[in-house]
Amino acid sequence: MPHHLREPLCLPDATELVHGTCVALGRTAALLRGPSGSGKSDLALRFLFLARRGPAALEAPILVADDQVCLVRNDGRILAKSPDTIRGKMEVRGVGIVEVKSLMEAELALVVDLMPGTEKIERLPEGNAKARLLGIELPLVGLFPWEASAPIKLAIALARAKHS
User: Fold this and answer.
1) pTM above threshold 0.70
2) I need a labelling partner for 32 at 20 to 30 A (CA). Which of 12, 25, 65, 132 fits?
3) Domains of the chain
């Protein structure tokens, strides 16, 4: 899967600022990564409004950060936060920057690489794909963000990662 995550470090070995969008169910988060225009913010917007039903309905979907995510390694886990300058803001293409409810931080449990189509996404993945961030391995899935079911798939994958 493509790796779109190497950006300058904020503080060596402890914190990294990455290009991506981060959403959560409760306090458990997924990092959406892909190149500019790949659908990160759009998928996050649909996730926030469509993931209120189904397997993850007991926990409200919420934004952590849009466009830039600060990752902090802490006690063997990774916390995701929004830079102060963009906290609670989300880009909605065609509408502009909008204010949305957001978390100060959430524990990162899943990395999602956005794919340009469905051809390279395994139909029945073995579930052993991993992404290494700040020296910690996390479950990795690939999603095509423009698929109608993408926000639901994201909710299912995040709920599964939370309980693994």
Assistant:
1) yes
2) 12
3) 9-162 (3.40.50.300)
